[in-house]
Amino acid sequence: MDGVPQFTATVTDALHSLAQELTSARLLIQFGLILLAAVIGTIAASLIRRRIDLTAPGARWPHVVQKLARLLLANLATIIFVLVLDVTRAIMISITWPSASYLLGVAASLATAWVVIAVITGLIRNQFVYRLVAISAWTIAALSILGYLDPTIKTLDSVGIMLGGLRITPLLVIKTTVLLMLTLWATNAVADFLDRRLQTSTDLTPSIQVLMSKLIRLVLIGFAVVIVLSTVGIDLSALAFFSGAVGVGVGFGLQKIVSNLVSGIILLADKSIKPGDVISVGDHFGRVGNMGARYTSVDTRDGREYLIPNEDFITQRVANWTYSSDLVRLFVKFSTTYDSDPRKAQEAAVEAALSVERVLKKPAPACMLTAFGAASIEYELWFWIRDPAAGVVNVKSDVLLALWDTLAGQGVSIPKPGPARVIYELAREDEPEAPKDQSDAPPPPKSPFPG
């Protein structure tokens, strides 16, 4: 706790010295020179930007060079401000005491640190990481320039609590948080790069690509966390308390999350489901999109995307329409009247199926006569498609429309509902149900022969 009074005393002395300096003319002169340098920098940068156009020449430069040129042009006013202050301070040092231009040196150093940090962090695309790095770096630079870095570090490290065998201080929390965010950002960038390289590999199946991508990301994240904890001086054995708490949490409330995570790894490993497959699970039918750690997305034909937990693919019956082959056989039922030639009806049905663009020529469509009904002849038309992800009902509709036109052109009649058909359906409804077991069946008739 000794660091807090020491830091308070340092800040108090600095404020007291500043209050005394505010009454001196040399401090007011330095403030005026700083303001004048800022005005000169702003006007000069505005005039230079009007005359410089990086669009045409910058198009031939590498992307990093283009980015650096734009960042330097954006911070041109600060750069000119620093140059003006350095020249002014050099002149003042040559004609007066160095202490008379101390404030100019501090302002120039702070502005220089701002430019360097802005140019370096400007290459970071993630806005959150950019702001975090820029603010943290400039705060450390400002404290170092003003001479308050060491007292601030001692103050933040003087207050802490003991948790198990670990002493947690504000300095430890800040260092761990900043380093963890930076390493996780770098880890995700590396993982994204490796993921793009894996997706371009033609030797790996889609499921193996996703599995390797997930495993690489998990390994890199775990490695980054261990590195950060070791860097800030945290003994990993001191985290036994937290690991026990995590184990209790998994046992009581995180079973589903762990189950979905393990199920996702199993699905990727056994390649039963992979991105691009057409599946039906429960009431959902669609194409497998993204396979995440907790869920798998299934894109449907109506524009909706279902996020199905990975556990459902392990515990429920799943129909994979494209597991070993992308060929899918469909069928439609139809009937003709008894005064129509059944062979001609079969030929017309095959012709109708072949006229639909999505129906394959090989395997060829086939039409089977299935039953002689009370009022019509029943048929089933079988045909094959290779793109179930494009829809199943729509291709059936196209085949039925083509069948309607082809049967009409061949002179084959489709039965219409009439009195005979209605009587037949009503008679089927009035038929008594078959006995469920032998005890409910009527007794057999007696034999006319003795014995």
Keywords:
5-stranded antiparallel β-sheet; alpha+beta; elongated; SH3 type barrels; single chain; 451 residues
Detailed description of the structure:
With 451 residues, the protein is an alpha+beta fold. The protein folds into 4 domains: 3-159, no CATH class; 168-253, no CATH class; 271-320, SH3 type barrels; 328-427, Alpha-Beta Plaits (2-Layer Sandwich). Helices cover 59% and strands 12% of the residues. The chain contains 16 helices and 10 strands. The chain has helices spanning 3-21, 25-51, 55-58, 63-74, 76-95, 102-121, 127-146, 149-158, 170-199, 206-231, 240-252, 255-270, 310-315, 342-354, 393-409, 419-430; strands at residues 161-163, 166-168, 278-281, 284-291, 295-299, 305-309, 318-320, 328-336, 366-372, 377-385. The protein has a 5-stranded antiparallel sheet with strand order 6-5-4-3-7. The chain has a 3-stranded antiparallel sheet with strand order 8-10-9, covered by helices on one side. Strand 9 and strand 10 form a beta hairpin. The longest helix is centred in the middle third of the chain and has 30 residues, at 170-199. It is elongated. The N and C termini lie far apart (115 Å). The relative contact order is 0.05. Residues 434-442 and 444-451 have low confidence and may be disordered.
